[in-house]
Amino acid sequence: MPMSDTRAIRFGSWSRQFAGTPWRRALAVFVLAGLVGIMGLVIGAVKLSPLALLDAMAHPDSQAGLIALQLRLPRLLLALLCGGTLAVSGWIFQQVMRNALASPDTLGVTSGASAAAVAYLSYLAADWGTTGLPLAAMGGALAVIAVVYALAWRSGTTPLRLILMGIGMAALCSAITTFILVSSPLTTTLSAYVWLTGSVYGANWVEVRQLALWCAGLAVLLVPLVRFALLAPLDDALAVGLGVRVQRTRALLTLVATLLAGVAIAWGGAMAFVGLVAPHIARQVTRAPGVAQLLTSAALGATIVMLADLVGRTLFLPLDLPAGIFVAAIGTPFFLALLLREAR
Amino acid sequence: MSTRMRLLMLAALLLLCAATSLMAGAHWLSPVDIWHAVWMPSATNVEDLLIRTTRISRTVLAITVGASLAVAGGILQTLTHNPLASPGILGINAGALFVVVLIATFGGFGISWSPYAGAFLGAAVAAAIVWWLAMHRATSASPLRLILAGAALAALFSAFTQALLVIDQQGLDAALFWLAGSVSGRPLDTAWPLVVIAAIGLLLSAPLLRDLNVLSAGDTVAASVGVRLRRLQALAIGAIVLLAGASVALAGNIVFIGLIVPHIARRLLAADLRVWLPGAALLGAILTLGADIAARLLIQPGEIPIGVMTALIGAPLFIILVRRQRNAHV
C-alpha cells in the first residue's frame, strides 16, 4: 500500500491515521448492505416501487406503510442486527484465538445457547411464556464458554486449546439438544427446530428495541477493547512486551464476543455460520487488519442475513422459510471460493 | 504387553460387549436364553423372538457402524495428514444424510431401497468434493484450510437437510430420531445388504494398509518409495464412501466415533498403521456397542438415540485427550 494513501485526522491532541484502501472498500460494503436493505423493504409478496416505499414511509397508516414499517422494517432490522453482531463476535474470536476456525460455532457458544433455549422451549415455555428465552440462550452461551475456559486453563490458556475444548463442548451440547428434541412432543419439537435453524420470522418493534439496546451496550463495552483485539494475533510474549495483560484482555474479549453472539442467537436463533464466514470474507476484502475490517465484517454479516431472509421469504412463496437455511446456502460458496483463491 | 496381546484383548472385549448387548435391555436375558435362541429357536418362545428379531440385529448393526466409522476416520486422517479429519467433520456424513432425507421427502420414488442408495450417492459426492479440496493447491498445503472447507461443506449440507425438514414437517418426526443416530427398529433381514457393503469397504481397506502406513510419513516420502499415490487415494476414498455411506444408511448420524477412535487406537496400540487401524475397527465397534447398551438402559422404558450417547461418551474422552497433551503447541 503506497504511503500517499494514508491520511491523518487530527482534533487538537487526538490524532488517528487512516489507510485509504481498506476504508474505501469498507464503504463499498456498506453501500452493498444498504442496497440489500432497500431490496428487503421493496420486494415481497406485495411489491413496492422505491417511490411507493417513500410514499409509504410518509404515510405509516396506509396499507403500504403498514407493510413496510410494521412488517418488513422490524424484520429487516432484526436480521441486520443479528448478522452484524454475529459477524463482530466471530471477528473478535478469530483475532483472539489467532485461528481462522474460531467462531461462535466452534467454541461451543452456539450449541450452548441452543441447548439452553431448546430446554427452555420444551420444559419452561408452557408456564413462563417465551419472554425468558433470550435470557436462557445467553445463560447457556455464558455457561459453555465458562466451562470451555476452565477446561482449557492450565496456568493460562492457549488459543488452540480453547478451540479444541470448544469443539468437544459443542458436540456435547448438541447431543443434549438432540435428546431434548427427540424426547419432547412434536409441537414443541417443531418450534424448537425452526428456532434452531435461525429465523427472524414475525419480528416486531419490541424485539428490535431490546436487541438494539443490548447491541448498543456491548458496542460501548467493545470500543476500549478494540485495540487489544488488534494486538491479539501477536505472539503472547511480544504482546506482553508491548504492555498488554495477555490473559486478562483475552478473557475480557472472549466475554464480550460471547455476549455478542449470545444476544444475536437469543433473538435470531442459531444462524451462527455467519460468525465464521463474514469475518473471513471481510479479511479478504480489506486485507489490512484494523477497525475498517471490523466494520466490514459487521456490514457483511448484516448483508448475508438480510439477503438470506429476503430469499427465504420470497423465493418459495407462499412458504416463508427460516433465514438460517439460506445463510449457509449463500455463505458457503463464497467462503469456499475465497478459501481456494487465498492460496498464494 | 505386546501389541498383539492388546489387539487380542480388544477382540475379547468386543466379544464380551456383544454378549452383553444380546442380554441387556428393558427385559434382561440369561446366557442360557441366548444359547437357546441361537441354536434351537422356537417360533412361540418370546425370548427367542426378542433375541432373533431385535437384539441380534442391533448388535450386528452397532458393530458394523462403529467399525466402519472408525476405519473411515482413520483412513481420512492418514490421507489428509490431518488429526482432526473425520467423515463427520469433513461433511461426508452430512452429504449422505442430506441425500437420504431428500429422497425420503419425495417418497423414495416408490422404491424401498432408494434412500439407502442415496446415502452412498451423497457420501460419494461429498467425498469427491473433499478430495478435490484436499488435492487443491490452496488446501493441500494447509490442514487447517481443509478442515475449514469441510466444516463449511458440512454446514451447507445440514442447512439443506434442515430446509427439507422445515418444509416437510410430517417427515420431521420420523426423520428426527434417525437423524440423531439410531440402530433400533432396523431388522437385519432388510438391512443385511448394507452390512455386506460395509464389510466390503472394510475388506477393501485391508490391502491398502501397507501403503497407507507408508503414506503417514508424508506424500513425497510415500511416492519416493514407490507408492502409487493417485491409485491409493482413489481406492481409499472409495473405501471411505462405502464405509461412511453404509453407516449413515444404517444408523443415521453417529458422531465422534470417526474422530476419536483412531486417536485412542494410536495411543493404546502403536504408531504403525497396520496395527492401529484394525485396532481402531475393534475399538469403534466396542465403543458403539457400549453406547448402544447404555442408550437402552439409562432411561427405561424410553431410549436415548445412540448418536447422543456416542457424543456423551466421546466428548469427555476428547476433552481428556486434549488436556493430557503435554505438547507445547496445545
Structure description:
- The complex is a heterodimer of chains A (344) and B (330).
- Chain A has 344 residues and is mainly α.
- Chain A contains 14 helices and 2 strands.
- Chain B has one domain (62-329): ABC transporter involved in vitamin B12 uptake, BtuC (Orthogonal Bundle), CATH 1.10.3470.
- Helices cover 76% and strands 0% of the residues of chain B.
- The longest helix of chain B is centred in the N-terminal third of the chain and has 35 residues, at 46-80.
- The two termini of chain B are 29 Å apart.
- The model of chain B has no long low-confidence stretch (mean pLDDT 84).
- The chains are: A mainly alpha (344), B mainly alpha (330).
- At the A-B interface, helix 6, helix 7, helix 12 and helix 14 of A face helix 6, helix 7, helix 8 and helix 15 of B.
- Chain B: This is Transport system permease protein.
- Chain B: InterPro entries: ABC_BtuC-like, ABC_transptr_permease_BtuC.
How is the secondary structure organized here?
The complex is a heterodimer of chains A (344) and B (330).
Chain A: E1 6-11, E2 14-19, H1 20-42, H2 50-58, H3 63-96, H4 109-128, H5 133-152, H6 159-183, H7 186-197, H8 205-222, H9 226-231, H10 236-241, H11 246-268, H12 273-286, H13 291-314, H14 323-341
Antiparallel strand pairs in A: 1-2
Helix pairs in contact in A: 1-3, 1-13, 2-3, 3-8, 3-11, 3-12, 3-13, 4-5, 4-6, 4-7, 4-11, 5-6, 5-11, 8-11, 12-13, 12-14, 13-14
Chain B: H1 3-23, H2 31-39, H3 46-80, H4 92-105, H5 114-135, H6 137-140, H7 143-167, H8 169-179, H9 188-205, H10 209-215, H11 219-224, H12 229-251, H13 257-268, H14 273-297, H15 306-324
